[in-house]
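Re: folding output
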Amino acid sequence: MSLIDVIVGVKNEEKYIKRCITSLQNQTIHDINIIVVDGLSIDRTPAIVEEIAKTDSRVKLLKNPHEVISSARNIGLRASDSEYVAYLDGHCYVDNDWLETLHKAFETYYDKCKLAGVGSTYSSPHDDSFFGKIIAYSQQTFFGGFGTSYTASQKIVPVETVAFALYKRSILDKEQVTYDETMTQCEDTDFNYQLIKSGYYLLRHPQALVHQYRRSNLQQFYQQMVNYGKGRAKFLLKYPETLKWYHTLPLIFVIYPILFLITLFLYLSGFLGLNIFLVFLIPIILYLVMDLIYTIRIAAKLGNWKGIYSIIMFPLEHFGYGWGFLKGLMWSN
């Protein structure tokens, strides 16, 4: 029995998996197992893992016939017998003290609250693509992250959900918490809500950094946002009691442009006065000003004028998430 089992769900991660596993092998806590669960990769991912496992008995390879990440994590959880369990994705890597940071925080706060897990904060890899860094910096702002694990923080804070967390295995067993394998997005949110419903707390640690490679082009990023929106809608349909006012905000980014175009047509056609048209125009101007302000900040942080590309990143994120959210509500199946 190890202290910590790290479950790594993968599919076609040959570009990143070696670095991911190496970062886990180099943890300051050595009493770990690294359980890689492969979702029927068609690239060299399984071969790379098997090669590493030949020289490190802590590395184990399992198959995931259902391919989705929620299934991978359940498979890994069933194969685990450790005191703690943690999760990581194949396109991520961590600093050498990642597990130690999470474990120390858990031990520190466990007696102070009914704690179930301590999770990580996203970070941009130093060698990520320039496009990936624009995504990362955009989502680290309040405008782009809205307080999620992407946003920067200097304190250990309680959260509703968290990514790449360390959980006490006995709590998961006691509460019979597993991943809902019908959730192809927001699987962590669903998993964590099961714990919150049972009265537990979750913390996010600002120094437990997970370096995650981002999408490489606009199309992939936009589709990711659509999928996130659909996942969030599915979660709300499953747990209606979790609905809060700010969950409706994504819909504004889909509905408002349509209303504005209708208003513009009516104004140009002479059916509406200028005052009514301005009521619809001002919110768009304010949004564009916010977009520009955050874009300038990101360009300055990157030290490169190409950071100006983030001016389209925020609208893509907001509209894509909103469209996915709407699709998830209307076509839940």
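--- second protein (sequence, then structure) ---
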Amino acid sequence: MKFPVSISKPRVGWCAAFLVAVTASTVLGESLLETMDQEVASIYEKSRDAVVKVHALRQLQIGNLVLLPTYRIATGFFVDKDGHILTTATAVDDVDTCWIDWRGRRITARIVGRDPQTNLAVLKINPESGTPTPFLPQGDSDALRVGSMVIAIAFPYDLPSAPVVGFVSGLDIQSNGHVFPTTHIRAGCRLSPGQGGGPLLNVHGEVVGIAVAVHADGQCCALPINAARKISKDILEFGQAQHPWVGLGVSERPPAVDPIESSLRQVFVQQVYSNTPAADAGFCNGDILVCITSNEVRRSADVLNAMFYHRIGDQVEFTVLRHGLEQRIVLVVGSRPAQEAFGSVSIPQLVPPGPSAPWPVAVPASQER
């Protein structure tokens, strides 16, 4: 039995147009995926020679008893032609010997300096005479936004280096209860042991961060390269990082004008600690922070981010509201007392002082065995 088939010309045209549109969309999708695949592979090939495997060995001995050595593996990368390498501080903490694997060779590395507060370390190898080391170009980490694609390159376990593609999922000032000294990048790059210290690259192949910790859900926490650049310069110039000491406890609250609008916040001085630069400058409890130099203060994190890049002795101008009137206060950045670790009475802080919070699984990175 045959059934009559009747399709009008307009319907045939519509179906044809639909098929063409679906085909074009499929081709476009495949084209975009192929382009992304090619770009990631190209960035990896261009960058891999500047990424190195870092080894660290510590020999423990109690009296005449020699214990099994502690051996760690991490990742690092060259930042200049003179052989300077960035990696994580925990990878080379209290070790006796440090070396890198590069181009099939074992090369001794010297630890130039470490900064436990940002979990950053600077290493140095002596390249062969007249042979500069390759290095990764550095981008602007402030240009990253939630949704930006990033590519991590590092050494998982004892395997060769590999790229891990992810997207920026947050820009956080704290993780797992630990308050960072400046905003960190949270990215959906799940890293394996050995990959801590690896670079995070943007779509242009520029370093925008260095993997220093793991978020509670397994995402990567990266120190922005702008912050890493400041710390590494401090280490090379002064022998150690220069973290500012201010002496303010700050907090957030809704503005009195429109407390219902949750997106608006006021950052105010909750406590001025005695014998600190803030006390000498004349801050008062209740002062509302408006600006630090030319940077507006909208969140507590803005205070940490603005102060992070200052050095001891810098004069910093604050604009505050006191009793409804705008005032300017000039503060001279001090040197943090040795007993004050970030997260206890670190200044400025986001919460009242308390015990120093542990690092959030510091260095996904370091493999101990």
